[in-house]
Amino acid sequence: MRLPTLFVPHGGGPCFFLNPGAPPDPMWRPMQAYLAGLIASLPTRPRAILMVSGHWEAPVATVHVGERPALLYDYYGFPEHTYRLRWDAPGAPDVAARVAALLGRAGLATDTETTRGWDHGVFVPMMVAVPDADIPLVQLSLIDTLDPVGHVALGRALAPLRDEGVLIVGSGMSFHNLRARGPQVTPVAAGWDAALTAAVTDPDPAARALRVTAWETLPHARFAHPEAEHLLPLMVALGAGGEDRAVCDYRDTVLGWVVSGYRFG
User: Closest Cα to residue 111, out of 185, 60, 145?
Assistant: First the structure.
């Protein structure tokens, strides 16, 4: 059974785990609930997850092929216990090899590595979505040119995985400007979000790809994303989604930002 592809918000640092034994800040609870329901919302449980995070860039698309990746606590200024969080899912070397083969078949330059840990764009949302850490995961990097068309091409090359039990997830934030926070940001963020969502959910797949890869032409684009890395996982999910229907399946306001999640298929 074909799986959809997803673009999910991963929050801010270890935002869901700041107070051990207590619920998260109410601001983050809707996002946590959305992430917690992801696996149950699928037509079938995936045998593995392929994740592209906004926190890993490399000169070419690079696949982590390790069997037991460590965690990379790539956030700063949070409580000490958040640097001891655990998510002990296995890697999936067979899926990693398949990813590299599909990208190579499409003529896309690739590399592999075994030592980098899973960054918080992977393990923080996965601690919520797969708390038992019982689905193997492979991480794929962004390409550091940050070219949107190139990342759609990555997704298109990887689309066959959807029929092989692999869930493709882009992990980022639809709005990501760390210097702009608070209620005064919300009207501008809402305008950006409305324009982005209209582009992502365009019923014509070709028009959708053109509109989303031209994201810098949308209202408030560079205010929403001074840098593109947190938006590019969306391009991979969109490319892998092919001609399937696209929907916005999450929308909320955090830090004054209007933030959305998207599903293809």
Answer: 60
Q: What is the residue whose two structure tokens read 């696209």?
A: 246
User: What are 161-189's pLDDT values in tens digits?
Assistant: 999 999 999 999 999 999 999 999 999 99
Torsions phi, psi for 54 (to 5 deg)? -70, 5
Angle, CA of 62, 67 and 69, to the nearest 5°: 70
DSSP notation for 174-210 = SS--TT--SGGGHHHHHHHHHHHHHHHT-SSHHHHHH
Residue pLDDT, tens place only, 186-242: 999 999 999 999 999 999 999 999 999 999 999 999 999 999 999 999 999 999 999
Residue 44 in tokens:
């079938």
Q: Which residues partner with 58 through β-bridges?
A: 143
Helix orientation angle between 148-158 and 232-241, rounded to the nearest 10 degrees: 40
- The tens digit of pLDDT for each residue in 73-118 reads 999 999 999 999 999 999 999 999 999 999 999 999 999 999 999 9
Hey, what are 60's tokens? 């070419």
From residue 254, how far is each of 27, 29, 70, 214, 251 by CA, in Å?
Answer: 6, 10, 29, 25, 10
Strand order in the sheet with 5-9: 110-113, 61-64, 137-143, 48-58, 166-172, 5-9, 257-264, 246-254
Among 2, 1, 7, CA closest to 246: 7
Q: Is 26 exposed, middle or buried (0-12, 13-18, 19+ CB in 10 A)?
A: exposed
Q: In angstroms, rounded to a whole number, what is the distance separating the alpha carbons of residues 17 and 127? A: 9
